[in-house]
Amino acid sequence: MFSRLLFFVALLLIPGTLRAEDTPVEKAGFAKKLTIYLAKGPPNACGAGCDRWIAIEGEIDREAAQRIRTFLFPIKDKQLPIYLHSPGGNVEQSYGIARFLRTHNAIARIGRTTVPACSTGTQTDAACLKIKAAKGEVEAQLTTRNAMCVSACAYLFVGATNREVAPDSVVGVHNSKLMFVVHGHPSAQVVADFRRREMVSADRDRDKFLAAMGISHELSELIRSVKFENLHVLTRPELYRFGIDTRPLPETLWAVEKETRPYVRKIAQEKKGDGSSFRMMEWRLFCENKDRGRLMFVREFDEGAAGKSTVVMMAGATKTVAFGRLPARFGKYEVWSDPVSSDAVKAMLVAPHLQVGESTLASDGKSDTKSDAKPDTKSDPKPSFAKFDIDTTGLEQGWTQLLASCPTTATGPKPAGSFPPVVVSPSVNAAPAASPSP
């Protein structure tokens, strides 16, 4: 009898489909329906040896799943990474896409694709969408900075078997909202009872879906606790604990930041212990002149450290690049800054990885013999233990761009250990301004 009283069209949607004036879709310029296309960028644009990827962006509409299947099914290279940039949308469609990605063992990352051919307009106007919809590959550029996959996009993302969230990109979640259209004049109690039953069913479906994707039940509990009007940006420990991205050292590619004084930047997050905390780190390489650069390293201060640490950057087993001494301390950050000769820069560019070695000094100033790193000496500042490696992908291209605008000679002497004040506050807050506040 209930079905005779009401005819419901129930959808789980993001806030933007209800109130266009408040939606991230309007503020951030997302397309109104999910767009998918093949992108081709410069060498190593999507990682070492990778210059082609699949871009999926925009709002997840009610026909998105079939469109994604139709596009992906004939692609022969199943290892092409998929980069997502979406404010969410229809939850049921995101479940369907996620299951399809799982059957194809997809590789998914959070990243924003831009098409230079759309420079005269926006990335979502009709002309640009036509370019993206054309058959074949679209010349494009890729960045992870401020890229986001929130709301229903998070469900789509966990469908991939290989998932990577860069330190400067965002995955955000919140509870869903049930939308329905009422025909007739049912009582308020009837409508409330229906809403309650449907939300219970939606929670149950989400629990089953996340379990099938191998994601911790803690994520579902968290989603249930976040109001639909809010957004919770998953922290790195949460991404690790929930099983979404379990890499011990997630890192960005080196990329040029076009500030007043441009530089090449890399961000990484180092897992501490069981993964309940991660340490944010950032490297910046400046071009002082054609013969010299300046390398800066900033990281969050480890309050639990037993003593002071000295850090050395190496390019291979024998080439010391920079540092080898104690840092300056600014608030919660430790800062190293050293000039880097042209020979040292060349060594960095050809090395597939750079080694970061660390030794700890006890409170009395002596080397801590309990540390994993062997003590440094004045005669040989290079530690024999490399604490971790960082990838150099993107560094050569970035340095080449910097050289194009770098002065031929230094404008004046630079005091040893000096650094621009901006480095004290590294750009590690990736939450996009257009996303709702947690």
Task: Outline the structure in words.
There is one protein chain. The protein is α+β, with helices and mostly antiparallel strands. It folds into 2 domains: 2-241, 2-enoyl-CoA Hydratase, Chain A, domain 1; 255-424, Immunoglobulin-like. It has helices at 2-5, 24-28, 64-72, 91-103, 126-133, 152-158, 188-212, 217-225, 236-241, 342-350, 395-404; strands at residues 11-13, 35-40, 52-57, 82-85, 107-110, 112-114, 137-139, 141-143, 148-150, 162-164, 170-173, 177-179, 232-233, 255-257, 263-272, 277-289, 292-300, 308-314, 320-325, 328-330, 333-341, 353-361, 386-391. A 6-stranded mixed β-sheet has the order 7-2-3-4-5-10. It has a 6-stranded antiparallel β-sheet with strand order 14-15-16-17-21-20. A hairpin with a 2-residue loop joins strand 16 (277-289) and strand 17 (292-300). The radius of gyration is 25 Å and the shape is globular. Mean pLDDT is 82; it is low at 1-27, 367-384 and 412-438.
